[in-house]
From TrEMBL:
Gene3D superfamilies linked to this entry: Bordetella uptake gene, domain 1, Periplasmic binding protein-like II
SUPFAM superfamilies with a match to the protein in the record: Periplasmic binding protein-like II (SSF53850)
Family in the record: Belongs to the UPF0065 (bug) family.
Pfam families reported for this sequence: TctC (PF03401)
Keywords, sorted A to Z: Signal
Source lineage: Bacteria, Pseudomonadati, Pseudomonadota, Alphaproteobacteria, Hyphomicrobiales
Coiled-coil parts of chain: none
CDD domains hit by this protein: PBP2_Bug_TTT (cd07012)
Protein's name in the database: ABC transporter substrate-binding protein
Native source organism of the sequence: Paramesorhizobium deserti
Signal peptide, first to last residue: 1-25
Length: 326
């Protein structure tokens, strides 16, 4: 009798537990909003919509991409980092550490739940085809002799995707980076036009942005800050090949949500994003437009963005551009 009573008690407890802690529903059960932290028509918009198309196809739910590029993306980051933690408002995570150091925002890596990285495009170093500078080694030697001797074009505040890895390399080479002549440009296209016209000596941006000028014989890429040579540009040496310093970096894009999301939910979202990433349409869409399809899962992406913060702090402090002590 005692055994039967114990069995009944245990069974009843299991029923109560099952009712009290229902299984997590499959995600998504309704439309999802994806925040692109850039305006319409650019690389962030294109890659986010490419990913959203595959997520819709695979889940049967709408994934609505909303562009919020105001304030360099600060508005977009703020929108999704302060959203509900239910997985229905997610966003693009790209280089962000400069915003706090410039006093433009308060968010850090702890403000987000990283889900996965799906893209990376390395920074590269470009000169005019008729320049006396023939290699990345030449640039290093010139800047060691006189750090302010070259006019170097970079984007926006000169504290983001393309210039941070370049300055990191110069730090490794012992250049006095506080004296480097970094000149902000209204985008890479403007900087490249200045390069061709002779007003700039070096431009920092991605390689695909120079394709038309390189084909016209006006621009030469002397180095790329990636671990290996790029498949599409096999003749461009890496920074490590040129200098012996394994410095990499550039822009990157991933998916994230607000801090504190349930790990089980994050795992579901990561799996859905990974399936979308692996689809033939996504891969071909990235390749056709020259975007690097690079995957990092949740754990690796989380570690990566902390490295991004550390690198950005180091460079901006060395440049003297950090306005907020950290």
């Amino acid at each position: 009798m005692t055994s039967i009573r114990n069995l009944l008690t245990t069974a009843a407890a299991c029923v109560v537990l099952a009712v009290a802690t229902p299984a997590r529903a499959e995600w998504p059960e309704r439309p999802v909003t994806l925040i692109a932290v850039a305006g319409a028509g650019g690389g962030s918009d294109y890659t986010m919509r490419l990913l959203a198309r595959e997520l819709e196809e695979n889940t049967g739910q709408p994934f609505n991409v909303i562009n919020q590029g105001q304030g360099g993306g600060v508005i977009g980051y703020t929108t999704y980092s302060t959203a509900a933690k239910d997985g229905y408002t997610l966003g693009q995570l790209s280089p962000f550490a400069q915003f706090k150091l410039l006093g433009q925002a308060d968010f850090t890596s702890e403000s987000f739940t990283p889900v996965a990285q799906f893209n990376a495009d390395p920074a590269a170093v470009h000169v005019a085809a008729n320049s006396k500078i023939k290699s990345l080694k030449d640039i290093v030697a010139t800047l060691k002799a006189d750090p302010s001797s070259l006019k170097i074009s970079c984007g926006g505040t000169c504290s983001a995707s393309w210039d941070i890895p370049f300055v990191s390399l110069m730090l490794e080479e012992g250049v006095d980076v506080a004296k480097i002549n970094l000149i902000p440009a209204q985008g890479s296209a403007a900087g490249l036009q200045e390069l061709v016209s002779g007003g700039i000596d070096v431009v920092l941006c991605s390689i695909p942005e120079t394709d038309s000028l390189t084909s016209a014989g006006l621009v030469k890429t002397v180095g790329v800050l990636s671990a290996e040579r790029l498949e599409k540009y096999p003749d461009v040496p890496t920074a490590e090949e040129e200098t012996g310093k394994a410095v990499t970096g550039g822009t990157w894009r991933g998916i994230a949500g607000p801090a504190g999301m349930d790990p089980a939910l994050v795992a579901q979202i990561e799996a859905a994003v990974h399936k979308a990433f692996n689809s033939e349409r996504f891969q071909s869409g990235m390749k056709d437009r020259g975007f690097g399809a690079v995957w990092l899962g949740t754990a690796d992406f989380t570690a990566f963005i902390k490295q991004h913060e550390d690198q950005t702090k180091r460079v901006m402090n060395a440049l003297g551009t950090a306005e907020v002590a950290d």
